[in-house]
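User: structure tokens for this one?
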Amino acid sequence: MGIMERYLCLYDELGFHYKTGFIYKRIRKPGKVFYTIPGTTPNAVQVETGEHSGITVLDLDVHDGVNGNDQIKSGWIPENTACVQSQNGEGRHYYFSYMPEIKTSTNKEKGIDIRNNGAVIYSPPSIVRAGGVYKWIIEPSKGNLKPIPKDLYNFLAGLQSEKRNNRTFQKIPFHGMKSILDLTEKQRQIIREKLEACEAEKGYRSEKDFGLCCFAIGAGLNPEELWTLCRDVGKFMERGRAYFDLTFNNALKTI
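Assistant:
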């Protein structure tokens, strides 16, 4: 059995969903990172991350003077964690069991990426065009695919929250000036129901928050009035005014 076949059997055993292909052009878009060329032997495996495969991957990059490995404190990653050496020999991919609370993200400033829902990751025995090879340092097994440890989780969640709060965007003018008392009784009831829905379990709250903002905009509710109503609810309370402004602005774009 060749090395490609061996690893595909391993991925099948673990329930990883993957594609194989021949890398001849690097395009960093999910599903378009490589193409299969008829008549060639595949030299890449692209594993889907997230709920479908049951894995969340921490990708520590080393490029342009930034070393993601330097951001991780000793002891944050257990010694038996499944780990890949990336194609440049310095980067690392750490495989954990799926955690929906951590979102797919890219942080070039820190050299730390998260690959989760809606993303993919190169896995061994992939070979890139320049000759770099992805190698297992510690192969995955059902025994070493553990949740992200608490200290590491808090660090990663903090990075993602910090990046969200630092986003800048062009606010769209909105002239809704109604107070909650200016709305009809039916509209007020819908607002109450949507505020309750914003307390949904993690993984569904952003959608509910967006729905609340869309309805409030359609009703002409003053955004300051809406902020007063929702600032102590769910993610609005956790992430503050910057998160509210971003969600409200995105809702305006769809109305």
